[in-house]
Design a protein that fits this description.
The complex is a heterodimer. Chain A is an all-beta fold. In chain A, 0% of the residues lie in helices and 53% in strands. The chains are: A mainly beta, B mainly beta. At the A-B interface, β4, β5, β9 and β10 of A face β5 and β10 of B.
Amino acid sequence: KAGVTQTPRYLIKTRGQQVTLSCSPISGHRSVSWYQQTPGQGLQFLFEYFSETQRNKGNFPGRFSGRQFSNSRSEMNVSTLELGDSALYLCASSFPGTEKNGYTFGSGTRLTVV
Amino acid sequence: GIQVEQSPPDLILQEGANSTLRCNFSDSVNNLQWFHQNPWGQLINLFYIPSGTKQNGRLSATTVATERYSLLYISSSQTTDSGVYFCATGTYKYIFGTGTRLKVLA
């Protein structure tokens, strides 16, 4: 059974550019969450999607957005990149009703903004 | 909002040693999970443990919800146990602790 797949694994972008990250959940999983991990702030929740709808949102500026497709794959977009957006971006997926038992995380996309 | 703190922040062990990692939370929680982040960045779900004790091989965890803390025990540590251990609470939105970075030396 394939795990949560995130692409690309590594990315280098320039300040001011925009970036799109992709997350393919485990087959059958419909909830997809995104997290940002930085050395200074630790792991922080970005947003969660379920059935193509954003269900929960963290405290990030509007430059961070996401969407979910009908096949549950999700993308997140960061516009007007800043140096502080350099981070490991993790997505996680869960089967409906089993969120309490834990999400399965992908290996992440490491974004470097120069 | 709820605060989750972990101790110690860093831990270095010789292979074969035992260790206890602690997670304190500032308010009552209805779920608590432990994760291991491997050197490649992936978070591996270790335990879902809102209360009580669970064991899985050399790892075990105990949560005392009334006293707002959870403990992760690692026995007979191996080099593959190295990485960062996080506790987290929440359902659709995890609040992660500050993490304990563990290095096991051969």
